[in-house]
Amino acid sequence: MAMTMEMETKEEALKKGIAEFYDASSGTWEDIWGDHMHHGFYDPGATAPIRDHRAAQIRMIEEALRFAGVSDNPLKKTKKVVDVGCGIGGSSRYIAKKYGSHCQGITLSPIQVQRAQALSADEGLEDKVNFQVADALNQPFPDGQFDLVWSMESGEHMPDKVKFVSELARVAAPGATIVIVTWCHRDLLPSEANLTPDETSLLNKICNAYYLPSWCSAADYVKIANSLSLEDIKTADWSDYVAPFWPAVIRSAFTWKGFTSLLRTGWKTIKGALVMPLMIHGYNKKLIKFTIITCRKPA
Ligand SMILES: C[S@@+](CC[C@H](N)C(=O)[O-])C[C@H]1O[C@@H](n2cnc3c(N)ncnc32)[C@H](O)[C@@H]1O
């Protein structure tokens, strides 16, 4: 009993931390990077000029849809979409416009919800997209609702990956596609029970700054998807395709606009900026893996 209460308190503290982190930092991110709060997808070896980063973020969405086999054919319509961990709604608006879908976004941050609604109204998309504060691990939707279940860089915040994927599968309609794009650690070797202490220590530093409670590997996600009888499970390591992203984020933090914006938003955002070089270190050591996992709920 005491143990359960302790876990609940820890989960609530985590959710509060995530909400406050994004309440504080989303404006700064939007000022500099726009409405997509995720990595870009680049050609390997590319050193993209700053104006190309938005195109790289759009390409990330397109590559993820293509990898998942989401059809562009208007006869196979993607009508209802849930955007789990929606940020300020960049993916929702893009997908709503691309497919004419109705997108429902959830995030822990009330400020993100307000901003997502405002940006969508500016684009005349109020009847196509909707956003609310809700927990991905306890989604406010009935079973079997959505043709596309989309999670772009929110999985790393989830304290319980089994519950996370179970909820994605629960709200998916029969035959629906589930797309998870997320940060993983490397797969363990058959001889290993854990990451090395150095690796764990590096990840812990990143976790503390970005409210990432527990990392897992792509192989762990596959195990979970299999245990839920999901079908067509595919994964890929896209770390090489996202390599220019963090150096570009760091460069943007050192512009006058980036620097003053960071100072304005306070310690949580500054702490996030300070660990950015550790992300590059983690990728270089082949410890952090930028991963896509896609699967389908049985029809
Ligand atoms: C890095 S942002 C990505 C935002 C968006 N998917 C995008 O690509 O622009 C992570 C998002 O996950 C959300 N998030 C984290 N944990 C969550 C949870 N338990 N339930 C709902 N949203 C969550 C955060 O509030 C934030 O909106």
TrEMBL record:
<dbReference type="GO" id="GO:0008757">
    <property type="term" value="F:S-adenosylmethionine-dependent methyltransferase activity"/>
</dbReference>
<dbReference type="GO" id="GO:0032259">
    <property type="term" value="P:methylation"/>
</dbReference>
<keyword id="KW-0808">Transferase</keyword>
<feature type="region of interest" description="SAM motif I">
    <location>
        <begin position="81"/>
        <end position="90"/>
    </location>
</feature>
<dbReference type="InterPro" id="IPR025774">
    <property type="entry name" value="PiNMT-like"/>
</dbReference>
<feature type="region of interest" description="SAM motif III">
    <location>
        <begin position="171"/>
        <end position="180"/>
    </location>
</feature>
<keyword id="KW-0949">S-adenosyl-L-methionine</keyword>
<feature type="region of interest" description="SAM motif II">
    <location>
        <begin position="144"/>
        <end position="152"/>
    </location>
</feature>
<feature type="domain" description="Methyltransferase type 11">
    <location>
        <begin position="82"/>
        <end position="180"/>
    </location>
</feature>
<comment type="similarity">
    <text>Belongs to the class I-like SAM-binding methyltransferase superfamily. gTMT family.</text>
</comment>
<protein>
    <recommendedName>
        <fullName>Methyltransferase type 11 domain-containing protein</fullName>
    </recommendedName>
</protein>
<dbReference type="InterPro" id="IPR013216">
    <property type="entry name" value="Methyltransf_11"/>
</dbReference>
<dbReference type="Pfam" id="PF08241">
    <property type="entry name" value="Methyltransf_11"/>
</dbReference>
<keyword id="KW-0489">Methyltransferase</keyword>
